[in-house]
Amino acid sequence: MNTLLPTSTAGSLPKPIWLAEPETLWSPWKLEQNSLLEGKYDALCLSLHEQQLAGIDIVSDGEQTRQHFVTTFIEHLSGVDFEERKTVRIRDRYDASVPSVVSAVSRQRPVFIEDAKFLRSQTNKPIKWALPGPMTMIDTLYDDYYKSREKLVWEFAKILNQEAKELEAVGVDIIQFDEPAFNVFFDDVNEWGIACLERAIEGLKCETAVHICYGYGIKANTDWKKTLGNEWRQYEEVFPKLQKSNIDIISLECHNSHVPLELLELIRGKKVMVGAIDVATNKIETPDEVANTIRKALKFVDADKLYPCTNCGMAPLSRTVAKEKLQALSAGASIVRKELALL
User: Fold this and answer.
1) Could you give all domains of the chain from N- to C-terminal order, each with its CATH number?
2) Max alpha carbon distance in the chain (Å)?
3) What angle do CA 287, 313, 10 make, to 5 degrees?
4) Which of 107, 141, 224, 301 has its CA 20 to 30 A from that of 88?
């Protein structure tokens, strides 16, 4: 990008009240059939408009056409039974009723391609599209077929690569893989998780990103954070290997977290989406607070490689709060751009 410190969101943005219940994850749709499809695209346009009004440089669909960042992709795959549900522990944090893998998984048709084509047609700005990462996918299912996390994750990596190549073909500039599981299962990440992620990006010419955070601002996540102590050093476990990987951009959580920013030195040379907006609170950051987070990160990330971002998705927040946070993100980045121009 030509813009210095280009801003973006990590993922989801709140849905309008006429489409789904606000401030709720996995909220059921309020529309049906053709009205639902039209409503999703109207919501996508609205989300895009709000991002552009806020001055966001790299825009997204705000995940307006999907209920959840993982399961909406999975429900389009064969081999997964959404009626055969089991309760599993998600990221060693909370229990959830999830679908079961009952036979070989495969992708019969594209999942998000038409949605991405529509987004591409609505803007000339760079666009980013988020996909669930393969390790986070397996952590959101009950495997009753492969009986092996590693076997299943490689199958998902191949499927994600198929989808990613088609997203690239319709004009997506950055494909992001959401991997919150990377902050939990460190041995698996280093043994085969990063290798699977590289299989998912194989052959892509567009930029690729991995988003690793401490989760949405929901109670299960905020309670877990309270157990992590004064320093959150989880990134230290996976950054060295990610630094050597083919992933172009690493997206992480910084603002209002206890992540020691010197850990960014471990990924020196990579582009970094620095989370400068706390998604676990309704408090609106000031532009100066955002600018201060960016300044701290600039000690460890070169200015031409730093992308100010949100810590995570903002689906559980109100639209008003999300809009104001995006405005603060843009304003804070603008402050630091002006400072850098004077150097």
Assistant:
1) 33-67+112-136+148-341 (3.20.20.210)
2) 60
3) 70
4) 107
